[in-house]
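Structure ticket #2291
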Amino acid sequence: MSQNEIVHAFAGKHVLIVGDVMLDEYVWGKVRRISPEAPVPVIEYESRSFRPGGAANAAANVRSLGGNVLMGSVVGADAQGRQLLELLQAGGMDSQGLFLAQERWTTTKTRLLAHHQQVVRIDYERIEALSDQREDELLTWVKNNIQRADACVLSDYAKGLVSVRIAEEVIRLARQAGKPVLVDPKGVNFAKYRGATLVKPNQHEVERVLNHEIRAEAELMDAGRRLLELLEGSAVLITRGAHGMNLFRADAPPVHFPSLARNVFDVTGAGDTVVGVVALALAAHVDLEAAAQLANKAAGIVVGKVGTAQVTRAELLADS
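Resolution: structure written out below.
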């Protein structure tokens, strides 16, 4: 199947996403002077915008590529949570699995930008695990909706939602239903992702898990082998920024995909784009190598945009 055919096959596929959603806020302005109060720039406010972030950005990428989203998460019953809910609904995503909880804060990342350059980022969040009741509600929603999905994504941003129980149960339910499941991991406990079809860490996350810096090709190959052993056969896609991506599978030689980025303005959310493309490709029964190759192209496109962004069908179809 050509890349053009793969992208057309995305249309109408359903991806169930469970993970840490957040609100990305952008405050845009200009800098003309330094503050007399402290050696910091004064930003003259021009505009403000909001975008879905974290797992919600992966969902937005699925939608922009023609897929349908079933979004499962828990956010605060605050103004930020309600705004995020409105963004998802406006984007045409099924957000019935997005639960509002009085006891939680909605993670919000506020970025101040001047002349398209980020000056500072403010994180509003409180990281804590879900209560047993909230986990039960979320898992019940997954059980009731997994059959509607063509693929499943577990997007772990280490904000407290993807506990060992949530990870293991979502993966078990997906496998039981015969659905491919892709994990975007965080933290050092990768064992909780065992059984997934594909686990997609970046190189820094791999170095943390293995407690070893990757400086040479041989060390990368060894890291891939060790992750395959740790994950008991789940395929591994390591994203490496300017160095592209490397795919490791138990039954095939490793494959390297060189970066296709022409201009790099902002790497924010590039991993979410990779997740969205691979999830849709798995939903369309595309093999992992072809899925990773297309995701590599998508990542090269999205890093040329400012802020949390998505790749469109038209962009992926160009030059396919």
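Closing remark: DSSP finds ten helices and 13 strands in the chain.
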